[in-house]
Amino acid sequence: MRLKWLYSIRTKFLLYGLSSAALTIALLLIGRQLATYLIGYPPFIQPLRWVINNIGSLPTMVVIGLTVFFLLFFSFSMSTIRYMEEIDGALREIGDGRLDYEIPVKTSDELGQIASSVNRMTGELTTYLKRITSGLEEIAEGRFDRTIPVESGELAKVAESINRMAAQLNRSIMEERNAEKTKNDLITGVSHDLRTPLTSILGFLEVIEQDRYQDEVELRHYVNIAYGKAITLKKLIEDLFEYTRINNGLPLRLEELDLVDFLRQLAEEFVPSLEQAEMACRIAAPQETVHILADGDLLVRSFDNLIANAIQYGREGQFVDVAIAAEDDQAVVSVINYGEPIPQRDLPFIFDRFYRVERSRSKETGGTGLGLAIAKSIIEVHGGRISARSDRERTAFEVRFPLVADPSS
């Protein structure tokens, strides 16, 4: 487009030159005829003869022709030159930041088109800048979800950068709010779970202290209940301490660990609990070894919680199955029980701290609400992930870790 405009302007000046040259030739021919006519009159005889004899008719015509040509060319092109100077001055104003400056459109030719295009461009830039400014004002007022439309050109990069900045600020604020809510929820959950057994302990101790029991048998009954509540309180405090310690960046002592051997040993430790629940643990491991990098002392707490959970809620199924396999670059462990299923509405929340599925609220089965949250935290600090699925047939907790090559292979 720019080359087209330049070509048109050059053509315009060429036409000015051709017109000036043609008019100059016409004037010279008229002047020659006029001089021939005037040389016969006494007042013009001497001057014209002097010019012809001393200068020559050809040089005289050349000088006069050039003078007339330049005067005519200047006269024809003067308006165009002035308009170009006006456009140039306007472009300088726009270049200095006055985007509201408007170039007057005086012609319908190429220069007029240039002026119209520049006016249209500055108008679009001004409108876009106003939209960006409006968006920034809304962001400054706290509306970080406000997005500025991204169009084209350099300003589009500015708008895109502002949108990224606003999105990052919005994420940071939401993370801060979530952290504050998490802290408040933790305090609320801890307060509730500590207060409940503590209230019971204090109640029974008050009965004992005020001698409001009938005999030693009733005394021992109250003492046993208070002792049980104290054990529950101690376990909650230990779980809470463990959960906080893990989530505050507990240093790991990573070593290469064979999951097959590790889980076989752990299953042996649960034999008394399994026998008491009239259950059995079955280990399924197609590979002889499945190696990961892990802190064994910490990882045992995670699988201890998962297997204990499977025994606690899977008594109806008689078996706890532990399946260990290697899939691509991951080690996969599934802990499966065949008891009552977890309701689908509860599945997304079972790894949240202090969350209890309704069926586990009885004092016979209710835990601290931190077991699965601790297991999840331990698995995640090892670079793994845990998920759960449950239906009428079975409930499975699946754990995945990054796999390391078997050194014996």
What's the CATH class of the largest domain, please? Alpha Beta
Overall body shape: rod-shaped
Q: What series of H and E elements makes up the topology?
A: HHHHHHEHHEEHEEHEE
CATH superfamily of the largest domain: Histidine kinase-like ATPase, C-terminal domain
Q: What are the low-pLDDT stretches, counting only 5+ consecutive residues below 50?
A: 359-365
Q: Portion of residues in helices? A: 55-70%
- Please describe the biggest sheet, giving its number of strands, its sense, and whether it closes into a barrel: 5 strands, mixed
- Mean pLDDT, to the nearest integer, reads 77
Count of DSSP strands: 7
User: Which class best fits the helix and strand makeup?
Assistant: alpha+beta
Strand fraction band? 5-15%
Question: How large is the radius of gyration?
Answer: 47 Å
- Count structural domains: 3
Strand line-up in the sheet with most strands: 2-4-5-7-6
Note the total helix count. Answer: 10
Could you give the distance between the termini?
Answer: 69 Å
Within the CATH hierarchy, at the fold level, what is the topology of the largest domain?
Answer: Heat Shock Protein 90
Instruction: Quickly give the CATH architecture of the largest domain.
Output: 2-Layer Sandwich
Structure write-up:
The protein is of the alpha+beta class. The protein has three domains: 2-129, no CATH class; 182-246, Signal transduction histidine kinase, dimerisation/phosphotransfer (DHp) domain (Helix Hairpins, Orthogonal Bundle), CATH 1.10.287; 254-402, 2-Layer Sandwich (Heat Shock Protein 90). The chain has ten helices and seven strands. It has helices at 2-38, 42-55, 57-95, 110-140, 154-209, 216-247, 259-269, 271-276, 296-313, 371-381; strands spanning 255-258, 280-284, 291-294, 319-327, 330-337, 385-390, 395-402. The strands form two sheets. It has a five-stranded mixed β-sheet with strand order 2-4-5-7-6. A two-stranded antiparallel sheet has the order 1-3. Strand 4 (319-327) and strand 5 (330-337) form a beta hairpin. It is rod-shaped, with a radius of gyration of 47 Å. It starts with a helix and ends in a 7-residue tail after the last strand. 18% of the residues are buried.
